[in-house]
Amino acid sequence: MLKIAGARDAAAAGGNSLAQTLLELRAILENATVGILFTRRRVIVQANALAAEMWGYRPDEMLGLPGEALNASHEAYEELGREAVPQLSAGRSYRSERLMRRKDGSLFWCRISAKALNPDYPGQGTIWIMEDVDEERSIRDALDRSTRELLGIFETNLIGIAVVRQQRIVRCNRCIEELMGVESGALLSRRVAEVMGGNPEGFERLANEFLRGAEENRDHHSELRLPRADGSQFWARISGRALDPADPANGSAWLVEDITQRRDAELALIQARDEMEQRVHERTRELASANAKLQEEIFERMQTEQRVWRLAHHDALTGLPNRALLQDRLSQALAQADRHGKRVAVMFLDLDRFKGINDTLGHAIGDELLKQVAARLTAAVRATDTVSRLGGDEFVVMLHDFRNVDDVVMVAEKIIAALDPVVQIGGHALRATPSIGISIYPDDCDDAMRLMKNADTAMYHAKSAGRNNFQFFTARMNEEATRFFNLEQRLRAALDRGELLLHYQPLVDLDRNGVCGLEALVRWNDPEHGMISPGEFIPVAEETGLIVPLGEWVLREAMRQNRVWQEMGLPLLPVSVNLSPRQFRQRNLVETIRAILAETGQPARLLELEITEGSLMQDQEETLLRLRELADMGVRLAIDDFGTGYSSLSYLKRFPVHKLKIDQSFVRDLCDDKEDAAIVAAVIGLAAALGLDTLAEGVETEAQLAMLIQYGCRRFQGYYFSRPLAPDQAALLFKPPELEQKLHPHNHYHI
Ligand code: C2E
Ligand code: MG
Ligand code: MG
Predict the structure, then answer these.
(1) How far, in Å, are 493, 610, 623, 659, 694 from residue 641 at the CA level?
(2) The model scores a pTM over 0.85
(3) Distance 557 CA to ligand 3 centre (A)
(4) Residue 12 pLDDT exceeds 70
């Protein structure tokens, strides 16, 4: 609303147009939106309401106030005068902003605009238009301050900053100039596309992405290569934001960061990773091929090991498990039997007279027979049972998981039945009957070794019980075996300690009316058990191999004794020495004999060797060679216990043998048994026809002697003439008492 009250008063007073003008001027003055002062001679003569209000006076209070009172200080007022007077007196407006003081002493900023009414006459006064700009000033100051701050940030920033408007750079900081490699100010007004290296598509894409982002009110971020002024390039990360999101084309701020190092590092990292991956790939390939090779080798090795294992655990001839594998399976079977409260049976099986077949028909046929036996055995038992070959003609069958002993008996019978049919090999009809020994765990023993030993023992009993049968192990067998074992130990010691000695028994010759030789018979004088006869210990020695050193001792001792007798002046007589089959098979037998003869200074003709028919039966070629060698040396050869073996007389013809000793079993029953008598008569007759001497063993009675003489026998040995005697009884040996009387009791026998 206009303030017209004062003006109306003036108009009423004037009542004319001047008054009207005055009224209007006053209205303008009072309603002006600026403070208006009128001064004359430095004193306020007019002030409008707003001016009074600005300085905090009532309107009437201001009139007459010195102008200085409105200023901040005396000095400020003086300064205003100095600045304003030249302008005003030149007729120009004076404008400035100055600090003023209100009535209450407070200060405020005031924009001043002054003009002299008449510059030629300054005394006419000056009009001052005043605006309170305190608020405006403080806003402007704050704006200035923040602009300065922003500029500071802008200029000192390590990130390049540019403001773009209309696709041109309108402002940028030093950092971006340095990044681009240009002089200060060189980027201003440049087109962005040009700065980016004249790549219109790149720029286009960037601009589009930026605008799209701005529409969705989101900042733009991208990474790209920017060119420097020198032609080089750098990787930049660019962020853009519209200054006014509503109008993105109207200015945007951009941050540009050099990320070359980071990109390079990333690139190096990627490259390194790629190389690494490549290397890993190659290495993996190498490893894979190495692995494949290794697998191959492992496979081959396993196969070889399996082959070796098979070889090591199987018998090469029959393919059956060998002793090692059997033992393995046996211990497993025993462990299992323990766990489940079951039993295990072991059968030892030896083929009757296999050795004879092998020796007479050759190894090839023997091997073939063993193979067939293996096949029949395997077929006779269950697949879970083990048939194994220990060597030679020894087989072992292991049974487990049977209900009772009857089952074992059944298997044994099945085996005997399986081996019963004749085997045809190379035109020979052969029969390989078994002797089977059976032992059962845990009934007979409590470990695998005992079980095997027991079965072996039982097998020997089966053999002596007449072959082709089976025997179960009994405790008694074990006792015998133990005795056997003890005997062997003692015999070995006896041989070492010289507890063996020789007795001699004279061989009597009817034609010579006297003794024609002496048979050396070994004795064992055991300090504990007294004199032990060879019938007890020779089989043990033969079984264990001890016969070899024992026999050598006998030979040497007999030859030595004969020499002693010779040196005593007793008549020269041949000494007969028994050779066991095993001894006879010794390779170096001939050399040993030759050495002993040489050692004792005995001529070969004073040694007679007694061998059994069994010795002759084995490997005939070898036997023949050996006998020839001995005979050629001059050693005499006699067949001992003739008639108990299997040799026929025609068979004997092949060998260079000189004498047959008719076994005492024929002589024993000679007088009562017609058959024995017939055999003895036939042997004597045929031997004579073949040019062989005969000697009858075991002559105990005069009647036997008479009968033998009747059949044509001329040589004898037996208790009837003399028992075997110790060598110190030489007198009786060389000339038994009443020998002639015994040979010719009635003289009519004398021919
Ligand atoms: P042998 O070679 O047939 O010896 C004859 C055996 O008959 C001797 O028994 C002898 O004492 C016995 N004897 C002699 N006359 C009679 C008689 O009228 N009636 C009876 N019933 N027996 C008579 P010995 O000394 O007990 O020898 C037994 C066997 O031991 C020998 O039988 C021989 O095979 C073997 N032997 C003895 N000494 C040796 C030896 O040094 N080496 C070898 N390998 N065997 C030996
Ligand atoms: Mg003899
Ligand atoms: Mg004999």
Answers:
(1) 30, 9, 18, 11, 11
(2) no
(3) 20
(4) no
